[in-house]
Specification:
By secondary structure, the chain is mainly α. The chain folds into 2 domains: about 80 residues, Tyrosine recombinase, N-terminal domain (DNA polymerase, domain 1, Orthogonal Bundle), CATH 1.10.150; about 170 residues, hpI Integrase, Chain A (Orthogonal Bundle), CATH 1.10.443.10. It is built from 12 helices and 3 strands, in the order αααααααβββααααα. The protein has a 3-stranded antiparallel sheet with strand order 1-2-3. It comes from Thioalkalicoccus limnaeus.
Length: about 280
């Protein structure tokens, strides 16, 4: 399996997949091999079909997890083993169409204020104030901050694309205050070992801050990015501009993230300035 694994890594690199996609797709093929107890290059379409029936019926995985496994395994057979087609006749579970419980400005302010750790509060402020993904916050470098032009460079975000996002005055000042306190050198939020922090710490900090703030709405850390998108739309920001700021390849993804807000008004851009966040 090691030779096949290496071939798959090379194929994913040639397609420009992110590190997270590498991990997910490799895990999908490992799961298939573990279930069948055979090397994946010896399997037939019927074996693959049985595996996905197992994931859906016995393991009862969420639709998103099944689709991720499907995409990873399909990539392996098409791009690594050069199958002419992958037609498994598998009916994948439909994605649940749920409207996320949007955080209001007051709730975002309460969550940030309830986060007692300055480092984590700065990271959560980036998730909301710049609409960043968790992985993007964790891999920020000090050099990515352009204070003079008030821009933040997101290197190799989702889809292996770089982009620039605007740093509002409030967010830029929060970053400067954080830097004066911690003086990071390379990574903006380093671990004790000098590498980027793992996602677990920030996720736990968000969950705890949300609990302390008394916010009971369902949703994880990604809710701050949803709130950024919707609040910017309400402030009058154009959808196409928001698409570029969020790093979406398709405008349909941007539209799916947004709520319809009939009270949208023009002119508001600095989201953090609208919050009363404790500076402690």
């Amino acid at each position: 399996m090691s030779a096949l694994r290496q071939r798959m890594i090379v194929a994913m690199a040639m397609h420009g997949f992110s590190a997270r996609t590498h991990e997910s797709y490799l895990a999908a093929v490992r799961g298939l091999a573990k279930y069948t107890r055979r090397s994946p290059d010896t399997l037939k379409s019927a074996d693959l079909k049985r595996y996905f029936e197992y994931l859906v019926r016995e393991r009862q995985l969420a639709p998103a997890s099944v689709r991720l496994a499907y995409n990873g395994i399909r990539f392996f057979y098409l791009q690594v083993l050069a199958w002419p087609a992958v037609d498994l006749e598998v009916t994948l579970p439909k994605r649940a169409q749920r409207i996320p419980e949007l955080l209001t400005r007051a709730e975002v302010a309460a969550i940030l204020a309830a986060c007692g750790d300055r480092r984590y509060r700065t990271m959560l402020s980036l998730c909301y104030g710049a609409g960043l993904r968790l992985s993007e916050v964790l891999t920020l470098r000090v050099a990515d901050i352009d204070g003079e032009r008030k821009l933040l460079r997101i290197a190799q975000g989702k889809g292996a694309k770089d982009r620039l996002v605007v740093l509002s005055p409030s967010l830029l000042e929060a970053l400067r205050a954080y830097w004066r306190l911690y003086r990071p050198r390379e990574w903006l939020f380093p671990s004790r070992g000098g590498t980027p922090l793992s996602p677990t710490g920030l996720q736990k900090a968000f969950t705890e801050a949300k609990r302390r703030a008394g916010v009971s709405k369902v949703g994880g850390l990604h809710g701050l990015r949803h709130a950024y998108a919707t609040h910017q739309l309400a402030a009058g920001l154009g959808v196409e501009r928001l698409q570029r700021l969020m790093g979406h390849a398709s405008i349909h993804t941007t539209l799916r993230d947004l709520h319809w807000l009939p009270s949208a008004s023009e002119g508001e851009r600095d989201l953090l300035a609208k919050l009363e966040v404790a500076d402690g």
